[in-house]
Design goal:
CATH class of the largest domain: Mainly Beta
Strand content: over 45%
Number of domains: 2
CATH superfamily of the largest domain: RNA polymerase II/Efflux pump adaptor protein, barrel-sandwich hybrid domain
Shape: rod-shaped
Number of strands: 12
Helix content: under 10%
Largest sheet: 4 strands, antiparallel
Number of helices: 0
CATH architecture of the largest domain: Beta Barrel
Length: about 150
């Protein structure tokens, strides 16, 4: 219920808007109920709906059930968890990494985020350089089996 104070010709009125349906408004003026017909078109506001993209897994290694014969066992990629800028690359092709090793530092939402390996293996490709802008889901590093 919305409350308003109106001053008409020096008189003060407390008006409570109880309900609006189509062009009829139910109001209370100084405690007395009234039904008022609204002459102009009432525009209803709609709350926008938040539409999110499906979450992208950080590694493709959990696709064991749908692996293709041409893929190497244990191969996977590290993807950007959110949009940002690459600040520092801490690994290079040929490095052997363990789960939890920091691969690179990325700035997102004015914070530095450590992007860590979620599997063990040898780095087969680094797809980004310092200063690169990335979007959510972009491939950052490829990790293969030893």
């Amino acid at each position: 219920m919305k409350k308003f104070k109106f001053k008409i010709r020096g008189n003060t009125y407390d008006v409570n808007l109880v309900n609006i349906e189509d062009n009829i408004a139910e109001i209370e003026v100084n405690g007395a109920p009234y039904e008022v017909e609204i002459q102009s078109e009432v525009k209803t506001t709609k709350t926008p709906k938040l539409v999110r993209q499906p979450a992208v897994p950080s590694s493709e290694s959990d696709r064991a059930k749908t692996s293709r014969p041409t893929e190497r066992k244990g191969a996977g990629v590290i993807k950007a968890p959110l949009p940002g800028t690459i600040l520092e690359v801490k690994t290079k092709v040929g490095d052997v990494v363990k789960t939890g090793d920091t691969l690179l530092i990325m700035e997102a939402m004015k914070m530095e985020n450590s992007i860590k390996a979620d599997k063990e293996g040898k780095v087969t490709a680094v797809k980004v350089n310092p200063g690169d802008a990335v979007l959510e889901g972009d491939v950052l590093v490829e990790i293969g089996s030893d």
